[in-house]
Amino acid sequence: MRTSIATVSLSGSLTEKLTAAARAGFDGVEIFENDLLASPLAPEEIRARCADLGLGIDLYQPMRDIEAVPAEEFARNLRRARHKFELMRRLGADTVLVCSSVSPSAVDDDALAAEQLSRLADLAREHGIRVAYEALAWGRHVSTYDHAWRIVEAAGHPALGTCLDSFHILSRGSDPRGVEDIPGEKIFFLQLADAPLLAMDVLQWSRHYRCFPGQGGFDVTGLVRRVLATGYDGPLSLEVFNDVFRQAEAGPTAVDARRSLLVLQEALGAAGPPAPVVPTGVAFAELVTPDAEPLTALLGALGFTRTARHRGKPVDLWQQGEARILVNTGPAVRRDGTGLAAVGLESPDPAGAARRAEALLAPVLPRRRAPGDVPLEAVAAPDGTELFFCATGRPGLPDWRADFEDTGRAPRPGGVRRIDHLALTQPWHHFDEAALFHRSVLGLRAQESVDVADPYGLQRSRAVTDDDGSVRIVLSVGAAPADDTVHAQHIALATDDVVAAARRFRAAGGRLLPIPANYYDDLAARHDLGEEELAAYRDLGILYDRDAHGVFRHCYTRTVGRVFFELCQRDGGYRGYGAPNAAVRLAAQHAVARPTGG
């Protein structure tokens, strides 16, 4: 299926937008009028630029406030349209989007609207142009797609059809089944956008919160399936108004946009990327640091042992149970201190996982390997984290551990069993992209977004996981500045007894995050806990949560660089991540980072 994107969906100049769309693999674009007006290029130059890039100009938009108006105003509208149609001829665009009127002078008269749109279509046909009439969700008299179609049908003009927009249809809760009553040849264009489910004015919702399919709460796939059932054979085109996208770089946004359409087409049953290869566990987490001593002291207090060292790189393997942490002190370490650089994911088919990632436009990472090094497939996540597809201990497949030499020290028996989950803070402009990436490229299930009150704003998080919880990744974006150590990444370690694990950590010299006494007063009011149990939690800074499936107990270490650890105990099938406690944890970390005494 042909793919297209509206230039309004991307940031930058028109030339930058066109270049980004072409590099991402789009077939065409919708030229937004404001982008053309602000461009120093003549329409002929824009046409040539698109041709050089291999882009078609699928739509010119928008033409506003045309129909159902007094005769004198409509005459002025036709004069305006004539100029625009001549411009479109120079541009090489053959379809124009006409939005349902929001003008105060428009009247509620479908017959007049049909008659005037028919006259507009007469003029358009003289210029070789088709008119696609769209119902704005906030249109003055026409605000639903079925109403717009009735007017188009009544006009009965071959150069007049309808434009369907998923946001305008789904935001109003319109029944999409009626789409199948529209002949496919009369659907001149299809615009797609998703959005989070919000209770707000629909105009503001549309102008600021649209996102790409798969990033919001609408059933965009279901709508497109109905549109295709009509015989529609035009492009799948993205029209997304989003404050974040307008500020982010056009290139990565265009790639994210194209990925969303590839995933949409896959869901529709079209030929698409290789099937998902869902990871089955976490092989390792790699931390880079310019100063290993604070980090290795923390790992030692947690019960980890340095069991191996890379044969050719300054990378140590620290292990406890099935939890493995790589500590990298190489020359390419982060300048902002210790941080999480890479994650190894256990994969049933590492090569297949890499092929799917590449097909979905994930950057494949070249790996500098010495002769004899184990070949590992790796791609970059939107935030730059390197993801390695591993087959640890799998007969017949390369094992990354073969690159390491044993130190002769076996892992000590301890309380940590494995990595329970990873919490990755995203750059503010990559949050939605990251959720779609982990869901589509890795085949993980995305849970609902959660908003947490931070002392300095609001933190948003969303977990992605496999079916049995062997892989859990929490993506978050916070309100504090990007270099704030509070909004660091963290590694959660699973234990069967968090009280014992916390005591061992503290006895070994580790420092736990102190939690305010007020939290425990409230905890005693909310849950019937024994005095001894509550005293242990208070002493160790252990937080407590409960859901319909079980209980979660967890505590945190102090932060080293931009990383901290969590010790957590899941009992009875608990499925969450202690979200009700996040605000308390964030406040406690702020208090440690910026002590005020208040």
Beta fraction = 15-25%
- C-alpha end-to-end distance: 60 Å
How would you state the average pLDDT, rounded?
93
Q: Strand count, sense and closure of the main sheet?
A: 9 strands, mixed
Rounded to the nearest angstrom, the radius of gyration is 28 Å
Q: Identify the overall geometry.
A: elongated
Proportion in helices: 25-40%
Unreliable residue runs: none
Could you describe the 3D structure shown?
By secondary structure, this protein is an alpha/beta fold. It is built from 18 helices and 25 strands.
Write the layout of secondary structure elements.
Elements: E1 3-6, H1 14-24, E2 28-32, H2 33-37, H3 43-53, E3 56-63, H4 71-91, E4 95-99, H5 110-126, E5 130-134, H6 145-155, E6 160-165, H7 166-170, E7 187-192, H8 202-209, H9 220-229, E8 236-238, H10 243-247, H11 250-267, E9 281-288, H12 292-301, E10 305-310, E11 315-320, E12 323-328, E13 339-346, H13 350-359, E14 377-380, E15 386-390, E16 404-406, E17 416-425, H14 431-440, E18 445-446, E19 450-454, E20 457-465, E21 472-477, E22 489-495, H15 498-507, H16 517-526, H17 531-540, E23 543-546, E24 551-556, E25 563-571, H18 582-593
Parallel strand pairs: 1-2, 1-8, 2-3, 3-4, 4-5, 5-6, 6-7, 7-8, 9-12, 13-15, 17-21, 22-25
Antiparallel strand pairs: 9-13, 10-11, 10-16, 11-12, 14-15, 17-22, 18-20, 19-20, 20-21, 23-24, 24-25
